[in-house]
Specification:
Layout lengths: L1 E4 L3 E3 L8 E3 L4 E3 H9 L3 E3 L16 H10 L10 H12 L1
Antiparallel strand pairs: 1-4, 1-5, 2-3
Helix pairs in contact: 2-3
Length: 93
């Protein structure tokens, strides 16, 4: 099951250890999607899960770090928001 988020909420994507803020517009899947739909935080969709659905600019540094951990992205020495976003986008290429 896939769902598109219509109300932000804290949650941990399937397989993730740490929860993070799930943002409006993100496409989520699995158990997280089922719970989000049940709670009316998301609506079912056929859209593919994509990092393009995440607006990194709207995330805090802590949220970006959590996103990187959840997606096994090595941030290297990046500590500033712009550098972290760059590392995340580079890892997606």
């Amino acid at each position: 099951m896939r769902a598109k988020v219509i109300q932000a909420f804290p949650g941990a994507p399937d397989g993730a250890i740490h929860p993070r803020q799930i943002e409006v517009g993100e496409v989520i899947e699995g158990d997280l999607a089922r719970v989000a739909v049940d709670q009316k935080w998301a609506e079912e969709t056929d859209e593919e899960v994509s990092d393009d659905s995440v607006d990194f600019a709207e995330m805090t540094v802590d949220q970006l770090r959590a996103y990187a951990v959840d997606h096994d992205i090595d941030l290297g020495t990046a500590t500033k928001k712009a550098a972290i976003i760059s590392a995340i986008k580079k890892a997606a290429e």
